């Protein structure tokens, strides 16, 4: 048996056992140690999934094969890494045959196609491997890979469910949405910026948003609101005087500024009973100073959990750390200054859901960045039961392959020759030079395109790699040509390094924030969640819209995200806009108008019927359609992209 992922490794090692019955792959364990443990008679191995990807042929030459053994894998906290290349490495390692058999000459006689066929076969589900994955937040890819087929034979569902709702009702976890307060930040910039063309670009808008977010006035105001809430609700008095809080910031710079503002607030108000510590990775250069977590806290990163558990510290300020897997039952309050969505929202806010025996623990959340409806939508898929409504098929990846082929950056002979070198048992420096030369030929073709198109190419290649990796794990699909492209593109995409626009300018000395205020927008209790929630795989979609239309829509969606502080996925937004177009084509009023009016006159009816289409299709894409329904400017711009399409289509119909 294997246990994958770190949260339960300590629990496994604590089990009473005979010597050599259990082996734990700790931080100091190497891939060779794991290979040796797999080949031995050890019954239980506790490890992280990442170590499998580090096992190489030399490990197996000394350790021996595993294909003749049976394995049961228990995966705790199954998430995205268990549906990518790491999980693929697990399957390949556990079905590895003895590579030491035979001579070098015998190995070389095996064709590249034979090796690829074996590699694909070892990637998917294996007869000698049984996998059980546990997760509180099943994503579509997790259900596809580990779920059981639904009765209709179309979708996938968990083999067993202990829902969040049931766990709450039975008192094992708390409902963290019970006391939820939302705030919104309002500010106005000096008028000179509006007339300055330098500030019209997307990069400039991002700089402005970041400047405002990191401004002392903004963070100082939020710290005052946080401390007012902390004191008013007597957070420290919770759990017999042990209540603690977490502040979730948007990034490392924001975390540093929060810590500084927090200390200033404590000093100005002469408060000595509340102290905060900070958690972030690496180093931060801010105001000509370098900051580290250990430097700001005055103790090592390794001791942070113990320090925060002590009576000395009551507040933990985090930037992308301790938002998942952090088990601290004393946390009763969370202050969120970061956009959260989907699984990230559930995992972050669930840091508060731990029960503390002997106490009627209450939780509090104050959110500066997310609406309560958005948070509810994030929790809905995981509250009761999540079902994958349709599964992936080879057709999904073949369509994306055709899109990449249309760029004409791949030459089949070059790709095949690259793979011949890739699967050689040994490669000398000359072979590696030839492989680089083959990649350079593909990259030279990519460079024929302008920078924006290169970004599109890179995006499509990444989608292909991600979906193909998942496809060969989840299905029995074998295609040698596709696999060769996959191998070549994995290396080629690393060479495409494109950055749009000139971002070499400063704005701090030009911006003046005329006023800023933070206003409470609501106080909420948990809403009723659906009994069953259906999700779909985010498949690569190649639409029947022109390149120019897709570019315009992408730019509009990017502006929506920037101006409204949303995070609408570009692909989802484009798909939603196409849905609007199709609904408009079915509109009877527009059919009649197109038959009797010119294009210019038709446009008036078209604009009048946009809201009808958005309302009819609202359930398909609520986030994006809601934005368009509430914003006439964006609505008209999206509609304008398709007005000619709809007019021509309806004009041609008799």
UniProtKB/TrEMBL annotation:
It comes from the Bacteria. Gene3D superfamilies: P-loop containing nucleotide triphosphate hydrolases. This is Uncharacterized protein. Residues 28-202 form the SWI2/SNF2 ATPase domain. Residues 303-370 form the Restriction endonuclease type I HsdR second RecA-like helicase domain. InterPro entries: HsdR_RecA-like_helicase_dom_2, P-loop_NTPase, SWI2_SNF2.
């Amino acid at each position: 048996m294997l246990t994958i992922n770190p949260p339960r490794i300590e629990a496994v090692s604590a089990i009473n056992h005979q010597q050599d019955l259990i082996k734990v792959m700790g931080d100091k364990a190497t891939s060779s140690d794991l290979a040796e443990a797999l080949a031995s008679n050890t019954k239980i191995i506790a490890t992280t999934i990442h170590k499998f990807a580090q096992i190489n042929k030399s490990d197996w030459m000394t350790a021996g094969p595993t294909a003749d053994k049976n394995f049961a894998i228990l995966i705790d906290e199954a998430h995205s890494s268990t549906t990518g290349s790491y999980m693929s490495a697990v399957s390949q390692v556990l079905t590895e045959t003895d590579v030491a058999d035979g001579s070098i000459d015998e190995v070389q006689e095996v064709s590249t196609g034979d090796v690829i066929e074996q590699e694909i076969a070892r990637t998917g589900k294996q007869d000698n491997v049984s996998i059980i994955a546990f997760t509180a937040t099943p994503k579509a890819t997790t259900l596809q890979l580990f779920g059981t087929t639904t009765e209709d034979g179309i979708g996938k569902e968990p083999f067993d469910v202990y829902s969040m709702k049931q766990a709450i009702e039975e008192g094992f976890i708390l409902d963290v949405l019970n006391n939820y307060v939302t705030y919104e930040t309002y500010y106005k910039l000096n008028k000179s910026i509006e007339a300055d063309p330098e500030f019209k670009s997307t990069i400039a808008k991002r700089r402005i948003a970041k400047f405002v977010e990191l401004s002392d006035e903004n963070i100082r105001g939020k710290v005052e609101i946080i401390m007012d809430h902390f004191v008013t609700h007597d957070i420290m008095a919770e759990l017999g005087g042990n209540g603690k809080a977490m502040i979730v910031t948007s990034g490392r710079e924001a975390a540093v500024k929060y810590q500084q503002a927090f200390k200033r607030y404590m000093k100005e108000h002469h408060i000595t009973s509340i102290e905060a510590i900070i958690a972030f990775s690496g180093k931060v250069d801010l105001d000509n100073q370098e900051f580290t977590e250990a430097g700001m806290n005055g103790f090592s990163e390794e001791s942070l959990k113990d320090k925060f558990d002590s009576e000395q510290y009551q507040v933990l300020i985090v930037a992308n750390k301790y938002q998942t897997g952090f088990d601290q039952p004393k946390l009763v309050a969370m202050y969120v200054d970061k956009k959260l969505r989907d699984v990230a929202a559930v995992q972050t806010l669930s840091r508060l859901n731990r029960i503390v025996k002997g106490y009627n623990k209450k939780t509090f959340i104050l959110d500066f960045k997310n609406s309560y409806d958005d948070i509810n939508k994030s929790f809905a898929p995981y509250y009761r039961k999540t079902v994958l409504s349709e599964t992936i098929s080879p057709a999904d990846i073949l369509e994306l392959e055709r899109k990449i082929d249309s760029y004409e950056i791949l030459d089949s002979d070059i790709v095949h020759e690259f793979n011949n070198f890739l699967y050689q048992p040994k490669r000398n420096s000359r072979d590696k030079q030839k492989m680089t030369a083959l990649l350079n030929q593909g990259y030279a073709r990519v460079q024929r395109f302008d920078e924006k198109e290169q970004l599109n190419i890179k995006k499509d290649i990444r989608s292909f790699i991600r979906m193909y990796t998942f496809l060969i794990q989840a299905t029995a699909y074998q295609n040698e040509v596709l696999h060769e492209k996959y191998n070549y593109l994995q290396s080629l995409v690393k060479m495409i390094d494109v950055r749009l626009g000139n971002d070499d300018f400063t704005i701090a000395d030009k911006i003046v924030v005329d006023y800023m205020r933070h206003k409470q927008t609501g106080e909420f209790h948990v809403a009723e969640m659906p009994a069953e929630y259906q999700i779909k795989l985010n498949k690569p979609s190649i639409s029947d819209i022109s390149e120019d239309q897709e570019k315009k829509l992408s730019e509009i969606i990017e502006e929506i995200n920037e101006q409204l502080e949303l995070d609408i996925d570009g692909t989802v937004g484009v798909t939603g806009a196409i849905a609007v177009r199709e609904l408009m084509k079915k509109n009877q009023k527009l059919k009649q108008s197109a038959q009797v009016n010119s294009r210019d006159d038709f446009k008036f009816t078209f604009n009048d019927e946009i809201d009808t289409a958005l309302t009819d299709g609202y359930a398909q894409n609520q986030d994006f359609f809601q934005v368009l329904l509430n914003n006439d400017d964006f609505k008209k711009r999206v509609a304008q992209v398709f007005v000619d399409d709809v007019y021509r289509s309806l004009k041609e119909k008799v």
